[in-house]
Amino acid sequence: MSQTKMLQFSTGALLLLLPWFGGLVLGEISDNFSQCLNFFYNETPPSGIPAAGYQPICQRYKNQYHFASLYHRQHRAPLYSAYILSPADGKRPNNTWKYEPQLAFSRASPEMKSFYGDAPVDQNVIESQAVLEDYKNSGYTKGHLNPSMHQKTMADREATFTLTNIVPQQAGSNSGPWSGLEREVLGKFKAYCNGSMYVITGALPYITERWINNRVSAPEYMWSAYCCPSYSSNLPTSMKKFFPTYAAVGRNDRNSSQEIVPVNVKARASVRGYDVRRMSLETLEDILAQRLGMPISLFHGQCQ
Ligand SMILES: *[C@@H]1O[C@H](CO)[C@@H](O)[C@H](O)[C@H]1NC(C)=O
Ligand SMILES: *[C@@H]1O[C@H](CO)[C@@H](O)[C@H](O)[C@H]1NC(C)=O
Ligand SMILES: *[C@@H]1O[C@H](CO)[C@@H](O)[C@H](O)[C@H]1NC(C)=O
Ligand SMILES: *[C@@H]1O[C@H](CO)[C@@H](O)[C@H](O)[C@H]1NC(C)=O
């Protein structure tokens, strides 16, 4: 090898290795939530979910952790996001959608990154997670698990716009009964919760999985539960069943059977079939156990 050739060769090799070394300095993907346990009640993530196939993500943005998600790699969608509710103190931010380099390169930075306009997306990113293209013409909207209106600061709210916090959600659910549930939970927090409200919101896939773009699993139902361990000491009688925990399941397919969530046939046409059924935490855990085949316990000690 001549010296010039040698130089070209090693420069090329160095360039190839740069992203790898860059990642090495910044971090390494973890197989647990050790960096963001504070978003779970008693610093304890849900139990009963097998580790295989699921990737814990501590959602890091602008050098801070904002919430946690359990990502199902094969579904390219989260099973749930867990967060502490805090009412938004401003408007919904601009939708700059983000992805997680750490899913594509295990040694990459844990910091989420923005997709830039129509700039091409790295093939490793495409293979490891959902990208904007998956949602185009899919018939589904991008449904937040941790919604931006439940997050206080602008950075907290911007961080919810990562596709690892998003599932394919029908418009009739997203802007209909499901957003009604999100407002109701916010109202309960403001009126009666005296301390932190821990929320876990997730997706329930079809028994025979359905996909958008043959890549991203679409849920048949959405579910959510909260734990407010310290609440108003003089709750009105009608409010007692909502504390310390409460839960709900929402339809994401108007054609689904009515065993889990019945349909109100009198609802207006645009939202008919996207009903949300309120229920106890125990009932939700029974439904999850049956449908997911795992004995999930969402909050440590049932939040007591
Ligand atoms: C969590 O993961 C980190 C590596 O990111 C590891 O050092 C630590 O031991 C793990 N903790 C537990 C409890 O498994
Ligand atoms: C949102 O984007 C618009 C147009 O790009 C910009 O003028 C505005 O300042 C942005 N708002 C925020 C909150 O970033
Ligand atoms: C909230 O908790 C504090 C401290 O435990 C207590 O002093 C206060 O009375 C509680 N407020 C309500 C509305 O229960
Ligand atoms: C519901 O059923 C109708 C009629 O069979 C069909 O056109 C539609 O695609 C179905 N919707 C979903 C979400 O499967």
Q: What best-fitting shape do the alpha-carbon axes yield?
A: globular
- Taking all Cα atoms into account, the compactness measure Rg is 21 Å
Sheet/helix structural class: alpha+beta
- In sequence order, what are the helices and strands, one letter per element? HEEEEHEHHEHEHHEEEEH
For the biggest sheet, the summary is: 7 strands, antiparallel
Query: Order of strands in the sheet with the most strands?
Result: 1-2-3-8-9-10-11
Small-molecule binders here are: 2-acetamido-2-deoxy-beta-D-glucopyranose
Separation of termini?
72 Å
On the 0-100 scale, what is the average pLDDT?
Answer: 91
Number of strands: 11
Low-confidence stretches: 1-25
Strand content: 15-25%
Our count of helices gives 8
How are the elements arranged and paired?
Layout: H1 3-26, E1 54-61, E2 64-72, E3 77-84, E4 98-99, H2 101-104, E5 113-114, H3 123-128, H4 132-135, E6 141-144, H5 154-159, E7 166-169, H6 171-174, H7 177-192, E8 198-212, E9 216-227, E10 245-251, E11 276-279, H8 281-292
Antiparallel strand pairs: 1-2, 2-3, 3-8, 4-5, 6-7, 8-9, 9-10, 10-11
The structure holds 2-acetamido-2-deoxy-beta-D-glucopyranose (4 copies).
List keywords for this structure.
binds 2-acetamido-2-deoxy-beta-D-glucopyranose; 7-stranded antiparallel sheet; alpha+beta
What would you say about this model in short?
The chain has 304 residues and is an alpha+beta fold. It has helices at residues 3-26, 101-104, 123-128, 132-135, 154-159, 171-174, 177-192, 281-292; strands at residues 54-61, 64-72, 77-84, 98-99, 113-114, 141-144, 166-169, 198-212, 216-227, 245-251, 276-279.
